[in-house]
Amino acid sequence: MKFLYRYSFFLLLSVLFIQSSQAQYNSLVENIYDRERIDLNGTWKFLLDPMETGIIKRKYRRDFPADEVAKLNEGPLIEYEWDSSWDIQVPGDWNSQYKELEWYEGLAWYRKKFEAKKETGFRYFLYFEAVNYKSDVYLNGEKLGMHEGGFTPFQFEITDKIKSVNSLVLSVDNKRVTDGIPAADFDWWNYGGITRPVWVIKVPNEFIEEYTFEYDGEKINGSVVLNSASTGKKKIRIEIPELRIKETVETDKNGYAEFVFSPQKITTWSPTNPKRYEVSVSTSNDKVSELIGFRTIETKETEILLNGESVFLRGICLHEEAIGKPTRTLNWETAEELLLSAKGMNANFVRLAHYPHTEKMTRLADSLGLMVWSEIPVYWEDMDYKNPKTLALGKQMITTNYKRDKNRASIIIWSIANETPITDHRNAFLKELITTVRENDQTRLVSAALKVSHDGGVKNIDDPLGKYLDVLSINQYVGWYGNDYPDKITDVEWESNYNKPMLLSEFGAGALAGNYGDRMTRWTEEFQAYFIDETMKMGTSIPFLRGTMPWVLKDFRTPRRYHGAFQNYWNRKGFIDENGVHKQAYDVLKNWYIKIEDEAN
Ligand code: GCB
After folding, report:
1. Pocket lining: 112 vs ligand 1, CB cutoff 6 Å
2. In degrees, to the nearest 5, what angle opens at C-alpha 541 toward C-alphas 536 and 546?
3. What is the pLDDT of residues 132-183, one digit of tens each?
4. CATH number of 24-204
5. Which architecture does CATH list for 207-295?
């Protein structure tokens, strides 16, 4: 954290190199849910623009997105109008709102008019929790900047631009791009639009911009950043009443302070007791509070230690897609429904695949007692690993994800990639991402989902990246892809070049809920249940295995699953179907997880 703060200027420069008008990713208002906010969610106006008329420079161009500007410069606009355009709900992907947009990938425009009472003594930030994938943002006809990346928040300060009546316009483009993260090939639905909430956040002129609380097993170590127009030492009050901590710290002249507290007795956060403490940070005119848990996570040879004790991660992977009508946009209830399905299997861990999920998810994981793997969508072969722009984007994503969620006790693993090819460019790319994660955070583990071949035999974990990771995570589909059936799974043997813990970060087989048959027939529930059982059995013979997280909690939509009878553009490896109905595999895994927990006690 300290490192990040000290070097934020250089980070900023490297981002300015990508695009001078990029969103201010480098700063994010901390803990937005405890801030005064103008709610910009609800009904917006929506224009589809497959011809990209709004951005193509033509002689008679009508620059319609920044309509106030266009009207001033070019006279009236005839062949478009906002007021009669379609309505769209924000937050919400467009795919689930209009049948004709279910498969749409391209450009669209959004507009929201809103009123604000601007008060002196305050600053205003326009905050997007996520927009997929690329966006240009205009307020009152003036461009604020652009943002790339569909799963992380971004903000613009609008203190000088906000008026009593405002017109907010943005382009949203979810075309798949080869230099993006993810690149063009991925196995989930490319939901487009303003998929998470939008707010104007109001803070005092001098405000608490950021704070970090970390626990090392004895002490609480932390830092706080005050954002202020004036330099000079300032006082900040930090309180954790239940731990009898009430301290005042003094910042340096740039508004930065560090602190160390040694509470007498602390109840650590864990899945069995997800204890959190009320923490508040305040100055004479600003205050933010939230619940924060304290725990340690580390590895020792092939063990993972939570609060100093060996733990087995009884996990499940999940996508951010609601049970019921498929949509990327989750509210508190639909997010909780997914996590409760995981808990129903006696899981203590979730892999939030393959991108940062909504902040609701990690906050709920904190309160429900689920450990979390949080990852960025560096995914598969076709990423542009040579491209410095893509690398800068990856660093930005990982840093923003850290900044948003750094005070979540539930997160124990940052993952930097999924199933990437072993090449020199990829190695260099991922090594840089690992460095970025470790500069941000020395209190969590770093991993990446690596791959092995789909056929049986002896699997050797020898990916050179293993040297730099804390935990080796392997996706393996012996018995589904490749030539083998589930009866061969337990023949597989494992070796590792590294004395580190291993996770089975994916394994799974497709089954259509309600399709019954014998256990050697693909797409039946019996086949899937047998596959899961055999893979779990295989796991018992791997001495360095410290967790399993099969693929995947719920059937999910994806355009690359073509089997007409069983898939119809759904990945059917879910333990529950799209409506939450349990397949047989759900209870098979649950029984394993009950047994593993019992044996550990
Ligand atoms: C994988 C990927 C995951 C896919 C899954 C599958 O290895 O990591 O994104 O959805 O396999 O179903 O093939």
Report:
1. no
2. 70
3. 999 999 998 888 999 999 999 999 999 999 999 999 999 999 999 999 999 9
4. 2.60.120.260
5. Sandwich (2.60)
**pLDDT digits 0-9 by tens, 360-372:** 999 999 999 999 9
**401, two tokens:** 């994800």
Q: Of ligand 1's atoms, which has the minimum distance to the CA of residue 508?
A: 12
Half-sphere exposure of 252 toward its Cβ, with a 13 Å CA cutoff?
Answer: 10
**Helix H or strand E encompassing 432:** helix 424-440
Whole-number pLDDT of residue 15: 37
Most informative mutation of 553, 555, 571 for ligand 1 (most atoms within 8 A of CB): 571
Long-range contacts of the stretch 19-23 (C-beta < 8 A, 24+):
19/146, 19/148, 21/143, 21/144, 21/145, 21/146, 22/145, 22/146, 22/147, 22/148, 23/137, 23/144, 23/145, 23/146, 23/147, 23/154, 23/155, 23/156
Atom of ligand 1 nearest to the CA of 506: 7
Q: From ligand 1's centre to the CA of 187, what distance in Å?
A: 7
Residues whose CB is less than 8 angstroms from the CB of residue 294 and which lie 6 or more positions away in sequence, other chains included: 213, 215, 220, 266, 268, 269, 277, 409
pLDDT digits (tens, 9 = 90+) for 313-339: 999 999 999 999 999 999 999 999 999
- State pLDDT tens for residues 67-89: 544 454 455 566 777 888 999 99
**Domain spanning 298-508+544-553, CATH architecture:** Alpha-Beta Barrel (3.20)
CATH code 3.20.20.80 region(s) in the chain: 298-508+544-553
pLDDT at 356 over 90: yes
Atom of ligand 1 nearest to the CA of 353: 9
* 419 pocket-lining for ligand 1 (C-beta < 6 Å): yes
3-state secondary structure of 7: coil
CATH 2.60.40.10 positions along the chain are 207-295
In short, whether 571's Cβ falls inside 6 Å of ligand 1 is yes
